[in-house]
Specification:
About 20% of the residues lie in helices and about 35% in strands. It is of the alpha+beta class.
Length: about 90
């Protein structure tokens, strides 16, 4: 008699952060938690076109791709680096 094989179990994969496009910028989400954001400056006298905020850090950039990479890097560093005074 042949034995029945058990169906292969699927492993739960960790949730991956994703970008969501908004009206004046983009937000970086992990589930329902906002990790960071990139906003567009509306003022013409501003030096940079985009500002970003993530993991307690802020910055500015002229290119959207560079601003998004900066947010991703800040989130990744905050994940791996311990706080100095905690």
């Amino acid at each position: 008699m042949a034995t029945k094989k058990k169906p292969a179990r699927r492993r739960k994969t960790a949730a991956q952060p994703f970008w969501e496009r908004g009206y004046n910028g983009h937000a970086y989400w992990l589930g329902k938690t906002k990790l960071g954001k990139v906003t567009l400056h509306s003022a013409a006298h501003s030096k940079h076109k985009y500002t970003w905020e993530a993991a307690g850090k802020v910055g500015a950039s002229d290119d959207l791709a560079k601003a998004r990479r900066a947010v991703e890097l800040a989130v990744a560093m905050a994940d791996r680096q311990l706080d100095l005074f905690s």
